[in-house]
Amino acid sequence: MPTDRPHRVWRIFRTATMAVFAAVVVFVFSYRDVLAIADPDTITIGDVRAYDSVLESGDLLVIVEYNLAYSSLPDEIISDAYLGRFLRDTAELKSVEPFAFNDKGYGRGIFSLYWTAAEKDTDSIEFDNPNAEGYKLNLQGKVGVFGGSVPSITSPSISFQDSTQTAQLLFAHVESLARKFENDSGWNDNVDFDDLIENPGGVVQLTSEGIGSGEEYFSNAIPQLQSMIPTIFSSGLSSPDFSEKQPDRALEDKVNTFWDGNWVGDHFDFQADLYGVPRRTLTAMAAVVFMGLIAFFVTNLLGQNPQAPGFGMMTMAVTLPMFGAIDMVPLNFVITTAFVMGVLGLGWVFFLRRAG
Questions:
Q1: Whether the predicted model's global pTM rises above the 0.70 cut
Q2: pLDDT average, residue stretch 121-126
Q3: What percent of the chain has pLDDT over 70?
Q4: CB-hemisphere CA count at 13 Å for 242?
Q5: How many CB atoms lie within 10 A of CB 143?
């Protein structure tokens, strides 16, 4: 009877691995459909205004008004699905995710982009655009979120504001936007978002009471706005630091194009077109097969050692992130599988091993 123990443990491990494989295949095949959302009914960019020296001499603030209309709102909030971008011709100089507020950020709204004086010099942006360079503002869907081509709208029109009246003009602009939004049918159908600005004692201020206030929206849509025009905020308000930080996506881009241009990527692209499935579905299935084979060979290599199945399973702690690093499986796949395998591993250690 004792010699039967490794075989029983191995059968348990093999059954658990097959269950994980089935769950992962279902996850990968549904991954693309989960992300696909519908195109908007309409997508437009309205007023675009640029301000000089809002926080320091020579800096730049650009505020973009958009209208992203959906008759049926997507499940995703706007920051998960869209990007606001500043371009010179086709080169992107800065991008930002719009802030999700009323109706998940869809309908009418604004996004803003800010450059310090040093950043503006680095990007060679000139206020008033005296050399008529190809500055453009773009609102577009994120790649991979939409089923086909991404929706996009671009406006080359930028209204550069008088630098001698920056604070006054910015104050008037924010006040005008707040009144426009709270009177818009898409905003005032929700009582939580229909009161953005008020006049207590004849003083114009953004509302500050609870969720859905004017201060909440404009502080996030225009980071550091309280430092730019503090008089439009109620006294005593403490605003967190919303300074914009650009993520470094070099590693992500490198991983996502790991197989592009070589025979492995070409082979999987051909098979993906042949079977009508995403390439990552095939690479993920291949990765799971390889992980199973590695675990199997390690287990057999250890022979009759009663700990062999455990060591075989532990190889997946190495092979799973390795396949993620070379773009065989998406990050969601790695996280989900690691969680499931961790639960199975703990269950085996604390319950099944003793039962065997």
A1: no
A2: 96
A3: 66
A4: 22
A5: 9
Residue 65 pairs with which residues in a beta bridge?
A: 110
**Measuring CA to CA, which residue among 23, 32, 31, 34 is closest to residue 341?**
23
For residue range 237-276, what is the model confidence (pLDDT) as tens digits?
444 555 666 666 666 666 566 666 666 666 666 666 667 6
Q: Which two tokens stand for residue 182?
A: 């709270």
Residue 123 to residue 315: CA distance in whole angstroms? 47
Over residues 23-64, the pLDDT tens digits come to 555 554 444 444 578 899 999 999 999 999 999 999 999 999
**How far is it, in rounded angstroms, from Cα 329 to Cα 331?**
7
φ and ψ of 141, to 5 deg = -70, 155
User: Computed over its alpha carbons, how large is the radius of gyration of the chain?
Assistant: 27
Burial class (CB in 10 A: 0-12, 13-18, 19+), 313: buried
Q: Could you tell me which residues are beta bridge partners of residue 137?
A: 86, 155
Between β-strands 91-96 and 42-52, what pairing exists: parallel, antiparallel or unpaired? unpaired
Distances (CA, A) of 342 to 21, 298, 303, 335, 349: 14, 19, 24, 10, 10
- Residue 326 token pair: 């070379």
pLDDT at position 249 is: 66
Give the CA distances from residue 12 to residues 24, 74, 305, 308, in Å, rounded to whole numbers and listed in that order.
Answer: 18, 42, 16, 13
The answer to whether the beta carbons of residues 312 and 13 sit under 8 Å apart is: yes
Which whole-number Å values give the CA distances from 125 to 64, 65, 136, 196, in the listed order?
17, 21, 12, 33
**All domains in the chain, ordered by first residue:** 2-34+255-355 (no CATH), 42-246 (2.60.40.10)
Give 299-344 pLDDT, tens digit per residue.
777 766 776 676 666 777 677 777 766 666 666 677 777 777 777 7
Question: Which three-class secondary structure state does DSSP give residue 224?
Answer: coil
Q: In 3-state terms, what secondary structure has residue 288? A: helix
